[in-house]
Amino acid sequence: MPAVSKGDGMRGLAVFISDIRNCKSKEAEIKRINKELANIRSKFKGDKALDGYSKKKYVCKLLFIFLLGHDIDFGHMEAVNLLSSNKYTEKQIGYLFISVLVNSNSELIRLINNAIKNDLASRNPTFMCLALHCIANVGSREMGEAFAADIPRILVAGDSMDSVKQSAALCLLRLYKASPDLVPMGEWTARVVHLLNDQHMGVVTAAVSLITCLCKKNPDDFKTCISLAVSRLSRIVSSASTDLQDYTYYFVPAPWLSVKLLRLLQCYPPPEDAAVKGRLVECLETVLNKAQEPPKSKKVQHSNAKNAILFETISLIIHYDSEPNLLVRACNQLGQFLQHRETNLRYLALESMCTLASSEFSHEAVKTHIDTVINALKTERDVSVRQRAADLLYAMCDRSNAKQIVSEMLRYLETADYAIREEIVLKVAILAEKYAVDYSWYVDTILNLIRIAGDYVSEEVWYRVLQIVTNRDDVQGYAAKTVFEALQAPACHENMVKVGGYILGEFGNLIAGDPRSSPPVQFSLLHSKFHLCSVATRALLLSTYIKFINLFPETKATIQAVLRAGSQLRNADVELQQRAVEYLTLSSVASTDVLATVLEEMPPFPERESSILAKLKRKKGPGAGSALDDGRRDPSSNDINGGVEPTPSTVSTPSPSADLLGLRAAPPPAAPPASAGAGNLLVDVFDGPAAQPSLGPTPEEAFLSELEPPAPESPMALLADPAPAADPGPEDIGPPIPEADELLNKFVCKNNGVLFENQLLQIGVKSEFRQNLGRMYLFYGNKTSVQFQNFSPTVVHPGDLQTQLAVQTKRVAAQVDGGAQVQQVLNIECLRDFLTPPLLSVRFRYGGAPQAFTLKLPVTINKFFQPTEMAAQDFFQRWKQLSLPQQEAQKIFKANHPMDAEVTKAKLLGFGSALLDNVDPNPENFVGAGIIQTKALQVGCLLRLEPNAQAQMYRLTLRTSKEPVSRHLCELLAQQF
Amino acid sequence: MGGIRFILIQNRAGKTRLAKWYMQFDDDEKQKLIEEVHAVVTVRDAKHTNFVEVISVADSLSVLQFRNFKIIYRRYAGLYFCICVDVNDNNLAYLEAIHNFVEVLNEYFHNVCELDLVFNFYKVYTVVDEMFLAGEIRETSQTKVLKQLLMLQSLE
């Protein structure tokens, strides 16, 4: 315990601290503390008057106990007594106790004012500083009231010591920040400004902070500081690296003072006096020149100090925004930093360039670095650096590079950290809208956003694309064609269904001439997604269907049959049921004319501020706006992209879109009943004699419908597909159900369990894997009492998967009796590494109605893991061998489950790797190794998982010899904790 | 308005070795900040910057609107020295202010180690007040600070 001897003077304190450190448990610590508290209390209460030393020691012990996190409810008076001691060490402990505990006991303040007054008047600089520090540390209003008048006097008094002036300046700053009204400006202000000329650099350092704060509220009173600050700065900047002696830090003269002076100057516009301005520009040039000189030391401290000044200089240049030459030089300097080996500098350069991008003088110069910035977005390890790169791309974007930037951001989005995906989505959406030359590009971009990051595309974004398509008739046909094509993808995001449904409902007629997208084809495409969607989307689709009846009278019978089906008309969800009932009735009773009026194309939306821009501003917080809406840079953009002029008709027509733009819990768009005008029409329709006023099925009907399956001749059969083909290709099967990924995740670390269950069917899985081979048993259980017909589960390999994974399936019986279970055997061979699992498409008929859904088969690449044991030394050697950046994938994420070491172990073993003990120096961490066996190649994998229980977070690192494998394994595994 | 919000010295396990606050926080807020800072700083490695504008956990940090603040930190052996400043403050200046402070501690305690900060916690506050006051940098000259500290050390 070497430090005990260093606790000089207070041996009792050192012993006590040692005791606490030696406590083996929290209980022991509390016991020891209680014992000490009892001891101190008895000493304070005892008859014997305590000497100063003992008082200091006990107060210090109390302070230590408080800092450990325990409440202290006595000892304050003893601390106050210490203030009136003549001894520095006793006074210091008294002041410290009060400064630290004052939050919890503000009554103390009144008790100590007297002692502070005495010390301030003592003419003893040490005592004066203690008192000033106490005021500065507490900084309460009461203290301001008591001392705000005294401190300026001390600050400017001719006979105050330098150290007292330093403390007084900052003490005054604190009081001014806390209660500016208590610090009246006066004749002292002029003298404070002249402290910038003080001999003592420490005094200047403190005074600049005070002046910077004061001048923000009273710029005119302090205007004289400009020329003083410039000349001080000039003297520092032009001094040789050793001139300033004590204030030279790693060969850089007075870096902190320089930074502070440069910040003070940012409170003002450029100096009006030409001589001052000339001198200042010279300073700024000198700093830029020095950045190009060879470093005087290799230490990072040297370059950091030098660059601290450089970055502040650049901030001032940007603040002035009037010297094109300096702005371009600044930009070139930052451009060099973009490729610097130090992450700090790359980060700061990106950040600083972001503001340069908004200056008309340097915007073009910033743009020349686009490739470097794109590269940063792709390769930086620190997410905050990538974030800055994305910010900068956003800031440098204009019409000339919008396509490139948007496509790079889209590409980045595919692998971007979850934390920033939504922001990137917003930025892409804004840039695409703002710089769209042709709107087909805009539509493509937004649909790509949905395809790549559907989960992160907020309502604001997809509402906006609908608004723009609705308002611009030149893009409507293209939009209809594009969404139609997008919806054909085997898996498409629900947001795509929403946008597709809305657009086809409005503009499907524009592509109906092509037999490949004829009305029935459009309808069946949309309806094939219907069952997989959420209630809100299904509600939207129902509105699309009724719009179809108006657009395409030939689909009326089919659609009416869908609306009439029990699953709609008696849907448990009130909204869906109501829409089905109302739309069905509307379509049956209303004349073509009435239908055409009610279901007319939506009127253009009134143009407001882009809702997504508003959202981005909200995300960024106040102050972010200026960088975002940079109209000044590109005023012409307003003509084309500023939006669509409001058409007079929309002003007077109340439309459901009003809600849509409000962007709260807006009812799904295109729901005529939501509109006041349309609502009246509907009421009229329902009042008609032909209308059934029933709001829902009668109880009997409902009862019957549950017993009896819908009649086979139900028009539903129109939509049912023909007998399933022997082996449907990927285009024949629907997208995986929304929960498919979640279900798949459950099987990443285990091989057996229930894969899927709904009211009709349960699917169980048992599987085993060895080397690159696997066998899987799927158990299909019919939960109903009715036979399933045409039962045909098939495995499909989307994309390249066929060349990566071979799955042999045996056909199963086409009938599954009620309550029965059938088994299907799959033989699996991993040919090479793969990233996406095969799909399992299940189709059958239940009571005549076709059922179809698609799942992801729980075969992930980690199933072919062969655990490998190795010693620590081997592990580290291999770890080092795999040190290329692309071989490593890392994720830092919040724990989604309680952080239990045993559970984690089990999951990692289930994942397939060996767990290696005694490799990681930190026993909390997990380290694993294994080889992924495929027919074509083997991939060695090392992994490390570092839990941080305090933060409830993990860091997971994977290194493998193949880049996509590292990333993929990292993603799979990260979702397990 | 710029300036330091707080200075924290923590070890890897999250034990606080110094907490100096330059803004009013109540005790719960202080505790929460201490935990948040530890959480964001300890997961970073040499390939990260020395600056954190708290990323994903920002939402949980209701005490501060964290976007307006950032943590500048540097690790020395098992100790993290963290300074929380305004988002517009100069990163490198505060990064080197940390180092300047550490060099003073090292000189003052003759090869400072974590235990020195534990046993002499009341002296560490004095060092801090000499170099930082009211959330601003007060004195940057190591010579001047050490001279003052030695003078104070000699007093009774």
TrEMBL record, chain A:
GO cellular component: AP-2 adaptor complex; endolysosome membrane; filopodium tip; glutamatergic synapse; postsynaptic endocytic zone; presynapse
Limits of the Clathrin adaptor alpha/beta/gamma-adaptin appendage Ig-like subdomain domain: 745-858
Domain of life of the organism encoding this protein: Eukaryota
Entry keyword set: Cell membrane, Coated pit, Endocytosis, Membrane, Protein transport, Transport
GO biological process: clathrin-dependent endocytosis; intracellular protein transport; negative regulation of hyaluronan biosynthetic process; synaptic vesicle endocytosis
Keyword Transport: yes
Family: Belongs to the adaptor complexes large subunit family.
Described purpose of this protein according to its UniProt entry: Component of the adaptor protein complex 2 (AP-2). Adaptor protein complexes function in protein transport via transport vesicles in different membrane traffic pathways. Adaptor protein complexes are vesicle coat components and appear to be involved in cargo selection and vesicle formation. AP-2 is involved in clathrin-dependent endocytosis in which cargo proteins are incorporated into vesicles surrounded by clathrin (clathrin-coated vesicles, CCVs) which are destined for fusion with the early endosome.
Name this polypeptide is given: AP-2 complex subunit alpha
Organism of origin: Rhinopithecus bieti
Gene encoding the protein: AP2A1
From TrEMBL, chain B:
Family annotation (InterPro entries): AP_complex_ssu, AP_mu_sigma_su, APS2, Clathrin_sm-chain_CS, Longin-like_dom_sf
Membrane topology type: Peripheral membrane protein
Subcellular location: Cell membrane; Membrane, Coated pit
Gene source species: Rhinopithecus bieti (Black snub-nosed monkey)
GO cellular component: AP-2 adaptor complex
Alphabetical list of Pfam families matching this protein: Clat_adaptor_s
Gene3D superfamilies, per database record: 3.30.450.60
The AP complex mu/sigma subunit domain, residue ranges: 4-155
Signal peptide positions (record): none
A biological process from GO: intracellular protein transport
Keywords: Cell membrane, Coated pit, Endocytosis, Membrane, Protein transport, Transport
UniProt superkingdom: Eukaryota
Protein name: AP complex subunit sigma
Subunit structure of this chain's protein: Adaptor protein complex 2 (AP-2) is a heterotetramer composed of two large adaptins (alpha-type subunit AP2A1 or AP2A2 and beta-type subunit AP2B1), a medium adaptin (mu-type subunit AP2M1) and a small adaptin (sigma-type subunit AP2S1). Interacts with CCDC32; the interaction is direct and mediates association of CCDC32 with adaptor protein complex 2 (AP-2).
Primary localization class, coarse: membrane
GO molecular function: clathrin adaptor activity
Keyword field contains Cell membrane: yes
Family: Belongs to the adaptor complexes small subunit family.
